[in-house]
Amino acid sequence: MLEIRNISKKYKRGSEEFPALKDVSLKIEKGDYVSVTGPSGSGKSTLLNAVGGLIRPDSGEVLYKGENIYRQKEKYLNYYRKTDVGFMFQQFHLMPYLTVIENIRLTCYKESHSNRINFYLDKCSLLDMKDKYPSELSVGEKQRASFIRAIISDPKLLLADEPTGNLDPGNSEMLMSLIEEYHKEGGTVVLVSHDPNAVRYSNLNIRIILGRIQ
Questions:
Q1: CA 97, CA 43: separation in Å to the nearest integer?
Q2: What is the spatial distance between Cα 38 and Cα 44, in angstroms, rounded to a whole number?
Q3: Tell me, what's the pLDDT at 69?
Q4: Which parts of the chain sit beneath pLDDT 70?
Q5: Which of 20, 25, 80, 141 is the most buried (most CB within 10 A)?
Q6: Number of structural domains, the chain?
Q7: Rounded distance, CA 182 to CA 163, Å?
């Protein structure tokens, strides 16, 4: 499904360069649940963003279904991100001027997606909050809304960057159960986390230290 071949990435700060990834290779099969762990600054989020078509590596390849996504036109990348990838972030990235249901509709591109919103709102205990704005939600409610937005269009791949980083244990357990349910229904998950409990859900654990897989 997805193959990462020898990707490297450096960031510049003034005249200095900071390596984020160094010659990283990884294969992810359809239906895998991959957890990516490691200390802060080790390159975990850079790897996730490279897989998601958000950060172009300096070298190497990201192959999806045999195609190098960074050798395609921007139209292909946009389509890949729209139809095949769902994103979750630690900071939620909900639009503050849109209600919960309006935020979720942003990623719906078929009528069948919109028709499922109330089902997922109910499943995630958010049905009564659908007309609320993000500022009116608790931290746990914001992340569950973010989860629905990520999976409502039935993406093949869910990329989650520290999704439980701001959650208390109860909300963290609820969210991880929802992600696991998505996985059991056939979705592929790549999850970056400092939470050691996240590893227990995965069938493949990748540890990155100083930009390299250990």
A1: 32
A2: 7
A3: 96
A4: none
A5: 20
A6: 1
A7: 15
Q: How far apart are CA 19 and CA 11, in angstroms?
A: 6
Answer yes or no: is 80 within a domain. Answer: yes
Q: Which domain holds residue 193?
A: 30-54+73-213
Tell me how far apart the alpha carbons of residues 173 and 186 are, in angstroms, rounded to a whole number.
20
Instruction: Give residue 3's pLDDT.
Output: 96
pTM over 0.70: yes
Cβ contact 86:153 at 8 Å: yes
**Residue 16 forms part of a structural domain:** no
CA dist., res. 169 & res. 177, Å (int)? 12
The DSSP letter of residue 163 is: T
Q: Judge residue 211's burial from the number of C-beta atoms within 10 Å of its C-beta, 0-12 exposed, 13-18 middle, 19 or more buried.
A: buried
Kindly state whether residue 187 falls inside one of the protein's structural domains: yes
Which helix (DSSP H) or strand (DSSP E) does residue 196 occupy? none
Note the pLDDT of residue 54: 94
For residue 161, which of 83, 85, 77, 84 has the smallest C-alpha distance? Answer: 85
Distant-in-sequence, close-in-space partners of 34: CB < 8 Å, separation ≥ 6:
28, 189, 190, 191, 202, 203, 204, 205, 206
Give 173-196 pLDDT, tens digit per residue.
888 899 999 999 999 999 998 777
Domain harbouring 178, CATH code: 3.40.50.300
